[in-house]
Amino acid sequence: MTLADYQYSYNNLTFGDGTTYYVDHAEGFEGYEIRQSDSDQPRNDGAIRGLDYVGARVVAFTLALGETTDLDYEDRWAELRAAFLPSRSVDLPLTFKRPGQDERFVNCRPVQFTRVEEYRSFDQVGHPPVVFRAVDPRLYSTTAQTTNATVFSPTSGGMDWSVTNWPIEYTGGVQNFAIAQNNGTADAYPLIRFYGPTVGTCTAVTLTNLTNGDVLTVTTTITTGQILTADMTAAVTGSNSLILSLDGSNRYGSWVAPRSAFRLSPGSNSLKFTITGTSTDVIANLLWRDTWLS
To answer: Taking Cα atoms as reference points, which of 7, 241, 228 lies closest to residue 136?
Structure first.
């Protein structure tokens, strides 16, 4: 469903402006808290500057149930309890909408939900707090983007040696780079699918981001009808998904070191796709979402 401004959705429950459940207080969507890797044992005074990473995100709400009949009031509590069930291993998207922005979401789980009530002239007014924890702090656009990179095969250039004129250089034509646009402000980690050849052979694939220098090389044979999948989000978040698989079988060992997760930097990314083999119709399909950290 499409949300209106200042509305939220989690586990099929919509709350916020214009719904049954108003939001009295919300925090944690924008901003960040850094976890530091500074070393306190340098060779001299001070410390050694380490890398800074954004820690897990905590999102908190205070809802307002409003005044209604006793039965409707209990029905609302039941609906909240059903939406905010504790989860041992699964994170669900918490989607939100801000004026002038596309819908975004953060993957999280509820970690606190408390029934809180006030009594005013025999009417019950509920103000339950609910807290979510997102181990992956990234904010994602709900709209996914995709592009196909075909096997790189530049046309040769050369020189035209005319008898009556000076040599005239002619270009090699347009080279088949793919462009991936990340409209966020943080690195996006795509899901990459390499589709096997219909003709010829493929024993290795290499995808290069000419914009930031990232290189993904996998040495494994891909045959007709097979799909080699590289899940770069799983690589950086440590999820239970296979990071590298061929038709569902683990191929992590075929990932050529150094194994750094392949990124799409904010802005435009120019991609070059090459293979080892004789095929020219292997395709690298990238699926990603605009990404933010704050």
So the answer is: 241
